[in-house]
Design brief:
Helices cover about 40% and strands about 10% of the residues. It has about 475 residues and is α/β, with parallel strands linked by helices. The chain has a domain of about 260 residues: Type I PLP-dependent aspartate aminotransferase-like (Major domain) (Aspartate Aminotransferase, domain 2, 3-Layer(aba) Sandwich), CATH 3.40.640.10. Strand 4, helix 11 and strand 5 form a beta-alpha-beta unit.
Length: about 475
């Protein structure tokens, strides 16, 4: 072996750098959690690009590279990180990710990932039981909620009567009914599947930004008259912008009556199945034909890992099967251990071990504690917002997603939109907090997702103080 390659695979160098990186990350975790550093050092994309284009490690130790990367990244473990729905991963699960990356078991077939494959079945079976599916349920893990939604909807498409799209391609107009507030990944999945814009039937939301389920019937009839065969309804648990949960029982009732597929996009909120306090928000989820739950949102795993669950075991094999073969195979014992038969991925990370490591080290109850803590924080922030005159809550939060805006008397709607956008930009560039923004009924709102159990009431007060300061022009 040439010298350079020997160096690449040298165990001693790995060990040395490995220890240094663990020290570095430990220090980073302490600094971030104790708020000794800002959430991020904002840089324009072009200056970030210039930096990395011109970066050279040179004679510096290898760990310097990782130090620079950390310094120039957003710090999710910081209690003032309150933006997008990505969790501060449990360190044990991050180490599991390292093990996955290191072992690099491909997972497509059993022999390419024996342990991770069996562990995948164990953790999927646990979630299947938690959502209330019983022994007929099954599922698998895939890379992200976006891919999860596509995979589940492809399984639904296999069920469309008198058609074999897998074999013959799309011959009819097929559609899916979905809340106007659904995540864009649902829209994307339907377009990827060839349904086009007309195949995406948006059900208007009511005041609380959830699907107006009483409109399902009329929208269904309209679609039928337009020559569209509605194959499924998608419920949001919760929707992304506002964090509000659709009425799953009502959707389930409708789907049962019309004999169409019911999919629940619980990418964000599905973790609440672990919580005695909040699982009522998911009432009816056990009647869904398929469900998607992200581990990297509410279940403390590093990105990405997503559970795709099916009420009927056979359907978890449906997505990539030839239809006839899949119908025939119904009675056979499927090869649960050859994962690539069921997932979009061929080579797949050993995602199951991230979740399993948390489960083994801390027990199931830690998932409930995390969900309870974060959803409670959402309520606490709402209380604080209502106590302040210059703030307006968009709506009473049901989860850890809270939307609100800064208001001022005698300023137009457009003026307030500008002001809130400016507030958000200033916060971003300053880097002390990280929050995002969203538009609801053409009004700009500041949007926070409380993802970090280390965030406390003091952090929330400081955020509101900061917004007030910027809003007042100080
Ligand atoms: C985050 C999210 C998704 C997308 O999941 P990824 O894992 O980011 O691909 C889909 N739907 C909802 C409701 C989400 O919150």
């Amino acid at each position: 072996m040439v010298e350079k390659l020997k160096q690449v695979y040298d165990p001693e160098s790995f060990k040395q750098l490995g220890y240094e990186i663990i020290d570095l990350l430990t220090h980073h975790l302490e600094e971030a959690q104790n708020e000794h550093i800002p959430v991020m050092n904002w840089q324009e994309p072009s200056s970030q690009l210039d930096f990395w284009k011109n970066y050279a490690l040179g004679d510096k130790p290898a760990v310097s590279l990782f130090k620079e990367i950390i310094g120039k990244s957003i710090h999710i473990h910081h209690p003032k990180y309150m933006g997008h729905q990505v969790c501060p991963p449990a360190p044990v699960a991050a180490l599991a990710s390292l093990v996955s990356a290191f072992l690099n078991n491909g997972m497509a077939i059993y022999e390419m990932g024996g342990a991770a494959t069996a562990i995948e079945k164990v953790v999927v079976d646990l979630i299947v039981q938690k959502v209330g599916y019983g022994i007929r349920g099954d599922g698998f893990i895939t890379s992200g909620g976006t891919l999860g939604n596509l995979t589940a909807l492809l399984a639904a498409r296999q069920q469309v009567k008198n058609s074999n799209i897998w074999e013959n391609g799309l011959q009819d107009n097929i559609g899916v009914m979905v809340s106007a507030e659904a995540h864009y990944s649902v829209d994307r999945a339907l377009r990827v599947m060839g349904f086009g814009a007309k195949g995406i039937i948006r059900i208007p939301v009511g005041k609380n930004f959830t699907m107006q389920t009483q409109l399902l019937e009329a929208c269904y009839e309209n679609a039928k008259q337009d020559g569209i065969r509605v194959m499924a309804v998608v419920g949001c648990s919760p929707s992304t912008s506002t964090g509000m949960f659709d009425d799953l029982e009502a959707i389930a009732g409708f789907c049962k009556k019309e004999k169409i597929w019911f999919h629940v996009d619980a990418a964000h909120g599905g973790g609440a199945v672990f919580s005695e306090k909040y699982k009522h928000l998911l009432k009816g989820i056990d009647q869904a034909d398929s469900i998607v739950i992200d581990g990297h949102k509410m279940l403390m795993t590093p990105g990405i890992m997503t559970f795709v669950l099916f009420k009927e075991k056979n359907n978890s094999y449906a997505t990539f099967n030839q239809k006839a073969q899949y119908l025939l195979a119904k009675t056979k014992d499927e090869e649960w251990y050859n994962m690539a038969r069921r997932t979009m991925e061929c080579t797949k990370l050993m995602m199951s071990i991230k979740f399993y490591s948390i489960l083994q080290c801390y027990g199931e109850e830690v998932f409930a504690q995390s969900v309870d803590c974060l959803f409670d924080l959402g309520k606490e922030l709402a209380v604080k917002i209502k106590q302040r005159q210059n703030f307006e809550l968009a709506l009473e939060p049901q989860s850890n997603i809270v939307c609100f805006r800064y208001i001022k008397p005698a300023v137009s709607a457009a003026g307030l939109n500008r002001l809130n956008s400016e507030i958000r930009n200033e916060i971003l560039e300053k880097g002390e907090f990280y929050i995002v923004q969203t538009a609801l009924n053409d009004l700009v709102y500041l949007r926070t997702t409380l993802m970090n159990p280390q965030t406390d009431g003091g952090d929330l007060e400081e955020l509101l103080d900061e917004i007030e300061r910027i809003g007042n022009g100080n």
